[in-house]
Amino acid sequence: MKVEDATVITCSPGRNYVTLQLTGGGGTVGLGDATLNGRELAVVSYLQDHVLPTIIGRTATNIEELWQFLYRGSYWRGGPVTMTAIGAVDMALWDLKAKWLGVPLYELLGGRSRECLRAYGHAWGRDPAAAMQAADDMVAAGFSAVRVQCGLPSLPFAFGPAQGNDSSLPREEQWSTDEYLALIPGLFLSLRDRYGPQVSLLHDVHHRLTPTEAAWLGQRLEPARMYWMEDPVPAERQESYRAIRQRTTTPIAVGEVLNSVYDCQQLIEQELIDFIRMAPAHGGGLTALKKVAALAEVHHVQLACHGPSDLSPISLAAAIHCGTAVWNTAIQEYVPHPAESAAVFRTSHRLEKGYFVAGDTPGLGVEFNEKAAQRYPYKRAYLPVLRRPDGSVADW
Ligand code: CS2
Ligand code: MG
Hey, whose CA ends up nearest to atom 2 of ligand 1? Predict the structure, then answer.
C-alpha cells in the first residue's frame, strides 16, 4: 500500500488542533495529531512545505523505514517542530496500517498488556479550599488518582490550567515562589488526611523551581506520599535532577516538553526520574516512543504520556493504545477536550470509573469530520508568559 494523498487541516473547536490525514491505496485514511500548542502553523508548514511532498508514493506499511527517512534524511534533527511533524506522520502510518489489517492499533504494538489503563483526573482551585473541593469531585467521579493544582490567593491567575484560545497575544501572569512553597505542602498533607491511602495524589510544579527549592518541596511532600511531583525544574539540563533525586524520595515525573530519546537518556539511564511523560505527538510518534519505553523499562522508569486538552483526541487515542500495549505504562493524563471538539473527532475509547478502555475498532478508533472542522477556523493563540515580582520572565 502506497501513501497516495496527504492533507493537513487546522481547526479550532474550542482550541486549536492540527490534523494530518494520510490516504493509502484503497482509500483507507490514517490520522495523526500535529498540534504544537502556540506554534501550530510552524508544524503545518514543516509538513506541507517539506515533509508531505517526500512521502507521497512511498510504501505506507514500512513505518520504521519512513521514520528513519524523515528523521535522518532531513539532516536537521530534533526539536518540537520537527519531532511533532514526524510524530504526526508516524501516528497516521500506524493508524493506516492497523486499519488496513483490520485490527485495533494496540494489536500491532504487541497486544494487550492490561485490560484497561488507569487515568488521572485534574482538580484545580483558586485557593486550597476550592482545590480540595475540586479533588473531591474527581474522586466522586471515580478517579483513584487526581492531580491537584492551586492558585496563589494573592495573585490573579497564577498556576491555573492553560486556558483555551482566549488571547491572540500571550497573556502575562505573575508568580511568587515564596507564596507557592508556603502553600503546597499543607494542601497535600490535608488531602492525604482526607483520603487516607486510597487516592493517588499528583502535582505539577510546571518547571517553576530551582533544584534546591524542588528538593525542599519534595521533602515536605514525603509525608503525603505523592504519586508524583511533575516537572519540578526545566529538564534541558538533565543533570540537575540528580540534586533533587539525592535529597527526596518523592517520585519525579518529567517529559512533556521533551522530543527524543536523547532528551531523556540521562534521566532514564541514571534513574533520576520515576515516570517519563513524553506524548506520542511530541516525541516523534509511536515508533520513537516504544523505544523510549523499552529503555525506561530496563531502568524501572514508567511511561505516563502527556495528555492535555491542547493535544487532540487523536493523540489521546494513540496514548491509550500505546499504554494498553506497553507493559511499563503507569497511568494516563486525562483532561476533557472542549465540548465543540466532539463534533470534529469521534472516538471509540471509553473512560470507565477512572480507567481508559481502548476501542476495538480498527486503527486508533478515531473518525475525523472534515466538514465539521471547517466550522471552527484556526485562531492564533499563545500560552501565557510568567513574570516574577521584579518583572523578569519566569518559566511558565
Ligand atoms: C501541563 C500542560 O498537562 C500538563 O501536564 O503541563 O497543561 C501544559 O501546560 C500544556 O500542555 C502546554 O501546552
Ligand atoms: Mg505538566
Answer: 308
Rounded CA separation 377/15 (Å): 10
Shortest-distance Cα residue to atom 9 of ligand 1 = 162
Give distance in angstroms: CA of 227 to centre of ligand 1: 18
Q: How far apart are CA 276 and CA 264, in angstroms?
A: 8
**Amino acid (1-letter code) at residue 84:** T
Grid cell at residue 88: 504526526
- Closest ligand 1 atom number to CA of residue 161: 7
Q: Which pLDDT value is given to residue 160?
A: 53
Side-chain-side CA neighbours of residue 195 (13 Å): 25
Q: How many CB atoms lie within 10 A of CB 348?
A: 18
Q: Which residues of the chain are under the pLDDT cut of 50?
A: 165
- Neighbour count for residue 299 (Cβ, 10 Å): 16
Protein residue closest via CA to atom 12 of ligand 1: 37
Q: Is 255 in the pocket of ligand 1 (CB under 6 A)?
A: no
Is the minimum distance from the CB of 310 to ligand 1 under 6 angstroms?
Answer: yes
Cell of 352: 470507565
Q: Does the pTM exceed 0.85? A: yes
Element (H, E) at 155: none
Under 8 Å between Cβ of 175 and 155: yes
Q: What is the mean pLDDT of the chain?
A: 96
